[in-house]
């Protein structure tokens, strides 16, 4: 609590003393000397190990610093307990002051070891006083700024919650002011690590200031970027996995953190440089020939793929850096099969995107803060063990193929064992037909898909909600809830041959991109170009009377890429597990669109036959945040067979 931090400077005078009307902890004069004067801070009462003249290896240096940081965590936890549970007595204040003195002394020791103690020169002996190498200035020492950070030890409850995204709004920070005083605190630029190691890590490049009234709670959206494409994002609404790692040293390192401080610092500097670069490139018109018109999407794609393709980031986070082929695979999954001439346009667009990604990587180095160069340090870092799967619906990244051991120089060293060649068919008797082999029917040249989605013509008329509809199989209702979400609900009546039902949903941009005219199912089975973790479903055709509703028996739900079902929950309570990337059928769903220039088709289907029983068209959402009740909506074909 801030009152405990400030109390030593704002002790009330002992004279007369008005009644204390609030329970705010404060120092009470017990008649002793001092006349209310602020007492000098106590000296640390702990023994702090002295560092050597130089460390033999970087690992020794890291271990020494880690030991100090673990000791600092213990004192920080003790201070947090005093702040949370103390009664504001003189003893509490003295104990809190002693904790701060010990924490401050440990901070000084950590900074000294990190900044001033070098790696020993090979051959032994103390390191010489370091001089800046190759004109690069030393980075600022990792030392707290003195800001009040939004962190539990500062007298508040803090929870970090995932959003399921890989770039942009990647997390929410819930902050509860537990005190009777107003608090101003900062969410620092930092790395958000997956404490479990199973999900993505994120870099938050900019800090935010937060003001809270006494006992006020706030949920603060946090923008950032994923730095590991080989793991899934933290699911929407999932808390307890993301932990703060502040390279600035303002908060103690979490026990579940897996990154070293200098690696977290490096990630933050690299990503900050990329954000600054993309802003400058877009401002200077470098993205004018980008195949996506939306400027925010241009920035997201350049940022996300330049991050994923940076080998320095992959070295820290593990896995292989993304390549142009990886981008191509993602785009091809999005657009599906297209005519040859259309494919040439798409390939040209991929070339243009990759050029911008490489330009971003090249220019970003000019915007990065200089790194510390430590003489004699090899500073190798082995990434944490990765789970077997390594992609969010993408082609799974493989471990680097080891370089084969060279064979001995021998005659056979150059000749590799070739596979047994397919034997040449025994010639038929020379009867004229012997030269003409029976060829299989050639695969026809790719042509446009036999079914082409019709374009949107005009806007849908205004809809009136609630909307209800009776069909042979049951009752359909469409409502708008108090939060502005549209709810589709179906209650079967058991009177038709179909026994299992589900909602599916299609979406596409409005009025439509001529280069990417397709609809997609609204789930996350396929990666997105900019949102590799959230993604989209496969290409869909909402105007077809039958949909692919049956999962193959030999395929798991998480592996069924053609899954058509909608992944959104019908309520906040049912949405605790987040948006379903591989959803199962639901008879009640809800959606609250946030993306601009999108239009939707929501359909009730019979699972056994794939038959579409009902279709509701709604949209377009030009701004992305409109209430669904304020945009168009109506029932449209294909005519259901069951009415």
Characterization of the model:
There is one protein chain. The protein has 643 residues and is an alpha+beta fold. It has 8 helices and 18 strands. The protein has a 6-stranded antiparallel beta sheet with strand order 1-2-7-5-4-8. A hairpin with a 2-residue loop joins strand 9 (467-471) and strand 10 (474-480). The N and C termini lie far apart (64 Å). The model is unreliable at 1-39, 123-146, 372-424, 426-437 and 444-450 (pLDDT under 50).
Overall pLDDT level = 75
| Distance between the first and last residues' Cα | 64 Å
Structural class: alpha+beta
* SSE topology string: HHHEEEEEEEEHHHHHEEEEEEEEEE
Q: How many helical elements? A: 8
Shape: globular
Q: Quick one: biggest sheet?
A: 6 strands, antiparallel
What fraction of residues sit in β-strands?
15-25%
Overall strand count: 18
Low-confidence stretches: 1-39, 123-146, 372-424, 426-437, 444-450
Share of helical residues: 10-25%
What is the CA-atom radius of gyration, in angstroms? 31 Å
**How would you write the strand order of the largest sheet?**
1-2-7-5-4-8
């Amino acid at each position: 609590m801030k009152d405990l931090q400030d109390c030593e400077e704002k002790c009330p005078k002992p004279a007369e003393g008005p009644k204390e009307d609030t329970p705010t902890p404060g120092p009470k004069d017990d008649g002793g000397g001092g006349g209310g004067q602020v007492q000098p801070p106590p000296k640390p009462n702990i023994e702090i190990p002295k560092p050597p003249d130089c460390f033999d290896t970087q690992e020794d240096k890291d271990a020494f610093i880690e030991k100090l940081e673990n000791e600092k965590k213990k004192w920080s936890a003790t201070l947090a307990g005093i702040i949370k549970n103390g009664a504001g007595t003189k003893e509490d204040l003295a104990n809190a002051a002693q904790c701060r003195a010990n924490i401050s002394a440990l901070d000084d020791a950590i900074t000294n070891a990190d900044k001033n103690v070098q790696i020993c020169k090979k051959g032994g002996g103390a390191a010489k006083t370091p001089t800046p190498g190759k004109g690069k200035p030393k980075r600022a020492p990792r030392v707290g700024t003195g800001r009040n950070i939004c962190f539990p030890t500062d007298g508040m409850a803090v929870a970090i919650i995932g959003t399921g995204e890989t770039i942009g709004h990647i997390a929410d920070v819930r902050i509860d002011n537990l005190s009777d005083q107003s608090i101003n605190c900062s969410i620092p630029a930092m790395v958000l690590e997956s404490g479990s190691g199973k999900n993505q890590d994120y870099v938050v490049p900019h800090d935010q200031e937060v003001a809270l009234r006494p006992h006020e709670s706030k949920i603060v959206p946090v923008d950032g970027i994923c730095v590991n494409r080989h793991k899934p994002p933290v699911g929407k609404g999932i808390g307890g996995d993301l932990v703060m790692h502040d390279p600035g040293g303002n908060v103690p390192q979490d026990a579940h953190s897996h990154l070293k401080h200098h690696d977290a610092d490096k990630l933050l500097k690299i990503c900050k440089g990329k954000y600054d670069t993309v802003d400058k490139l877009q401002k200077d018109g470098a993205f004018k020939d980008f195949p996506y018109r939306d400027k925010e999407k241009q920035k997201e794609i350049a940022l996300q793929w330049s991050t994923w393709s940076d080998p320095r980031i992959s070295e820290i986070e593990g896995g292989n850096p993304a390549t142009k082929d990886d981008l191509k695979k993602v785009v091809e999954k999005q657009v599906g099969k297209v005519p040859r001439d259309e494919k040439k346009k798409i390939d040209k667009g991929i070339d243009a995107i990759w050029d911008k990604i490489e330009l971003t990587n090249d220019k970003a180095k000019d915007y990065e803060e200089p790194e510390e160069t430590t003489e004699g340090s090899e500073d190798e870092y082995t990434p944490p063990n990765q789970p077997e799967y390594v992609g969010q619906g993408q082609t799974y990244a493989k471990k680097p193929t080891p370089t084969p051991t060279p064979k001995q120089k021998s005659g056979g060293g150059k000749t590799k064992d070739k596979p047994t060649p397919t034997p040449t068919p025994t010639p038929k008797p020379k009867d004229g037909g012997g030269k003409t082999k029976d060829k299989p029917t050639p695969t026809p040249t790719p042509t446009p898909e036999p079914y082409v989605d019709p374009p949107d013509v005009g806007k849908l008329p205004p809809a009136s909600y609630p909307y209800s509809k009776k069909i042979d199989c049951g009752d359909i209702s469409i409502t708008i809830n108090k939060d502005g979400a549209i709810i589709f609900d179906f209650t079967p009546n058991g009177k038709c041959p179909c026994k299992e039902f589900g909602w599916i949903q299609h979406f596409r941009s409005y009025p439509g991109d001529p280069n990417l005219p397709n609809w997609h199912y609204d789930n996350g089975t396929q990666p997105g170009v900019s949102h590799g973790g959230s993604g989209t479903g496969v290409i869909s055709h909402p105007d077809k009377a039958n949909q692919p509703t049956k999962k193959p028996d030999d395929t798991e739900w998480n592996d069924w890429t053609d899954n058509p079902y909608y992944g959104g929950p019908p309520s906040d309570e049912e949405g605790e597990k987040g948006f379903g990337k591989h959803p199962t059928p639901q008879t009640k769903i809800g959606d609250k669109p946030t993306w601009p220039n999108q239009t939707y088709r929501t359909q009730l289907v019979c699972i056994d036959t794939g038959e579409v029983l009902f279709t509701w068209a709604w949209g377009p959402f030009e701004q992305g945040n409109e209430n669904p009740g304020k945009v168009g909506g109506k029932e449209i074909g294909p005519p259901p067979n069951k009415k």
